[in-house]
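How a chain folds remains the central question behind the approach discussed here. The record that follows shows the chain in one-letter code together with its fold in token form:
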Amino acid sequence: MTRLVTTKQELRQARAALDGTVAVVMTMGALHAGHLALVDHARTLADHVILTDFVNPLQFGPEEDFERYPRDLDADLRLVDGLVDLVFAPSVEEMYPMLPPMVTVTVGDLAAGFEGTARPGHFAGVATVVLKLLLLTQPDIAVFGRKDAQQLAIVQRLVGDLDVPVEIAPVPLQREPSGLARSSRNAYLDDAGRQQALALSRLVTAVEAAAPSTTAVLREIEQARERQEVDWEYAAAVDPATFAPIGSDHRGETVVVMTARVQGVRLLDTTVVQLSAP
């Protein structure tokens, strides 16, 4: 049976009772099949799995959807019952006795563009809660999805730069049968919105087909933006080490990131391609 803990003290006591290796899966709840893929992968890597279920206010801006972000802890518990050892679902007051906290994690140039530009302060909030949860759960492995590609890159730098003794294990992006990237925010879309949102996954397919040609990949991205099937915030091919947009001379691993608004909902998608030709 999965045990629910809601305080730091309960978590520390429950964590101390776990023998063997431990993996953590960090979520903001509203669990879906994409989260279960992370849990399934975590179960292959460690003896025990802890899932965190916490909507982190630090990563929401003043005009964002913190208050209406979907929350259903009972449904989350039913979904992962028997699949994880512990679910840590603290209150905001438990995680942050003082809000905003006096000490937070700062992030550098890796967080300057794309989501960092669209959501000022977002990645500082993400980095702060990730570090807190790593300290609280003390895992050997932390499993993160590749959908939030810039977040993954920042978390990898966080544990490297601050010498946090944990392995970061990325998991490929999970899709609905239609091709739409799985997200808790998909619940905000109606049927027409879901159809419109497939413009993102169509661009992913086109980019993957265009590789390994750098020029062809850049052309597909530019043409998708020009078609304006959705309200693009950005779509770009970037260097995975720096998240700087690539030029036509770039070769090697490349991350394609994109965000668009559909029916007022911000949707993300991404893919990784290897480029070896002009």
The CA atoms of residues 141 and 167 lie 5 Å apart. The chain has two domains: 3-171, 184-275. The two ends are 54 Å apart (CA to CA). Strands lie at 3-5, 22-27, 48-53, 86-88, 141-145, 167-171, 231-238, 252-262, 265-275.
